[in-house]
Amino acid sequence: xxxxxxxxxxxxxxxxxxxxxxxxxxxxxxxxxxxxxxxxxxxxxxxxxxxxxxxxxxxxxxxxxxxxxxxxxxxxxxxxxxxxxxxxxxxxxxxxxxxxxxxxxxxxxxxxxxxxxxxxxxxxxxxxxxxxxxxxxxxxxxxxxxxxxxxxxxxxxxxxxxxxxxxxxxxxxxxxxxxxxxxxxxxxxxxxxxxxxxxxxxxxxxxxxxxxxxxxxxxxxxxxxxxxxxxxxxxxxxxxxxxxxxxx
Length: 248
What we know:
It is a single chain. By secondary structure, this protein is mainly beta. The protein has a single domain, classed as Jelly Rolls (Sandwich). The strands form four sheets. It has an eight-stranded mixed β-sheet with strand order 1-2-21-18-23-16-14-15, with no helix packed on it.
């Protein structure tokens, strides 16, 4: 049974998605957890959070992967959490995305790509995230960078924005992603770039208190109608992904 809550605290609305409330599909070679409706998992109350459409937590067995398939008019972000992911696409890109990298594709008018575990002897674990763009039918593009992990120690490191000249990769949307790795007891404040946006917090490891709500590993919390957010790590080496997106 899926368990989640939608509550109002003072002047903000929050929706809590516990890790075990996510959709789940285990195909043997692919073990995938879906925060939002995806594939055969459909929950009308969990279609998206603003323009954040997909947040999949995927594990792909050694030597396996997604065959060549099409996308269009979507901003697709991949964040490896463990292992290496081999990418090929119809634009001619061939790359290996490693833990510590972030990859983005603007599908635009249409692309085809494949994603394979780069190794045969161990799994690859990664987040696959889709953000709905603010421009349709753009020229498809690909980008990939390696992050400096020291820049996310006990702080929030910007890894994605709408601006090509800003830190991290960029997409066709007024969205910002940040990553942080915190020691127990360390605190941070996230102030939204756009007050009218919403922010989705996804705990990768450990546990946090976000705006007085405790979150544990792989829990998610969406917050609307509040632009300043308090973050406190409850355990050592706690890791979090912060996703700010328009709610329209």
